[in-house]
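Quick one: structure tokens for this chain, please?
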Amino acid sequence: MGAVTDDEVIRKRLLIDGDGAGDDRRINVLLKSFTKWCNSPATPEEGFTQYQRMLSTLAQCEFSMGKTLMVYDMNLREMENYEKIYSNIEQNITSAHEKITECKKEIQRAKRIRKNRQEYDALAKVIQQHPDRHETLKQLEGLDKELQQLSHIKENVDAKLELRKKQFHVLLSTIQELQQTLENDEKSDNDDNSQESPVENGE
């Protein structure tokens, strides 16, 4: 026979003792009452009364056992739900790291664009010092167009970077709220276990 886990011991204890209200004592009393009822030379009226009492006690034990099973199943569903939440958090963290890496690349690209723009501005000033040369004017026109394109690219990059920052902020807030919920639930479970321990020791 394999080793019995703590969960199995607790589950069997709950099935016997219900919610800790003394169902094991009820079962012991029921067994004694049944034995006494079988061996007692009581009148039919007294026997029927004892029989009704035993049925009432048995119904109480069955009700407590059913309630305990419902709580046990609910806890299993909650554990599955927490596992899904934890998995989603892990995925969100991975996605957040990827977005951070992407944002860093975009920042570096924006810095290069800014540096190029400064160099083009300086070159444009040099070109403007020689307005009488036709070729220089053509180069200046080309540089102006390229500068406009780079400026447009920078604006798009800045807008996208701002959006990523907002999305990342929302993601971090959601992760913190989920982590706080898990910590509160874990604390509540620990408090429940600490309240059940005296009852088990008393048995």
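The chain is about 90% helix and 0% strand.
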